[in-house]
Amino acid sequence: MASTVRSDPVGSVIGFAIVFVSFIFRGFIPAPTWVWLVVLAVGALLAVKDGISGLDVVTLALAGFMIVGSLMSVANTPTSDAPDLRKLNEPIPVPAEYGFRLDGLQRDFERTYRSKPIPLKTVNQAIAEVVDYYIVGLAPEWTVVDRKEDLRIGDTLYAQAKFRQGDTSNGIGIQVLADVYADPSPAGRSAAVILIIQALNCGEDVQGLPSSQVC
User: Fold this and answer.
1) Which domain, by its residues, includes 195?
2) Where are any strands of DSSP class E within 49-141?
């Protein structure tokens, strides 16, 4: 059956006007995406309800362009519940008893803390206690997926642990080590505990996150 050419242009003009006004003023009038989609649908239906004219083709093309753009914008918008794996969100505060303070250059996916000076002979115990603090404090929501310890020069302990949040891709890693001060104080040699906390990716690769930072 041949398409009907409409003799009365009123619906065509009204439909075009609705779509055109939506195109011009959408950026100035805050409204949910679904509202604009309904307005565009109304305009398109008015334009074609009695047939298709040359103006209707323009109306449909403009409405289609706006609808596709709106759907792509919604698809590319992350949900508020999805964690940003490129940004560190510390689930618990750092241990309070060692006087940790932010130290050095901080990045979105990594923070470094330095403790107040403590006697060198107690630094290994402090390092172990910091690791245990995170293991106990993060359970049961976070599980340990890796833990390593070894001795470095001067027999100071280097410890690291990696944690995963349930079955998600969200993870964190900690590295705890000693920074021994060269000049001994009158009370004897001292050291600071260095705590490095990193965001980890326990799933697929995430753009912007170093490939080494995986569970």
Assistant:
1) 101-201
2) 101-102, 110-114, 118-119
> Token digits for 68?
């596709």
| φ and ψ at residue 65, rounded to 5 degrees | -60, -45
Mark whether 54 and 106 lie in a shared domain. Answer: no
Element (H, E) at 131: helix 123-138
Q: What is the pTM of this model?
A: 0.59
Please give the full DSSP string across 142-206, using - where no structure is assigned.
EEEEEEEEEE-TTS-EEEEEEEEETTSSEEEEEEEEEEE-SSPBTTB-EEEEEEEEEEEESSS--
Closest CA to 188 of 116, 119, 115: 119
Number of structural domains (the chain) is 2
Q: Are residues 105 and 193 located together in one domain of the fold? A: yes
Q: Which pLDDT score, from 0 to 100, does residue 109 have?
A: 92
The count of other CB atoms within 10 Å of the CB of residue 148 is 10
211: left (phi over 0), alpha (psi -120 to 50) or beta: alpha
Question: Could you report the per-residue pLDDT of 98-132, keeping only the tens digit for each?
Answer: 999 999 888 889 999 999 999 999 999 999 999 99
Q: Identify whether residues 121 and 64 lie together within a single domain.
A: no
Counting Cβ atoms within 10 Å, is residue 174 exposed (0-12), middle (13-18) or buried (19+)? buried
List the single range of 9-18, 86-95, 116-125, 149-158 with lowest mean pLDDT: 9-18
Q: Is residue 89 part of a domain?
A: no
Residue 94 lies in a domain: no
Tell me, yes or no, whether 41 and 122 share the same domain.
no
Question: Helix, strand or coil for residue 113?
Answer: strand
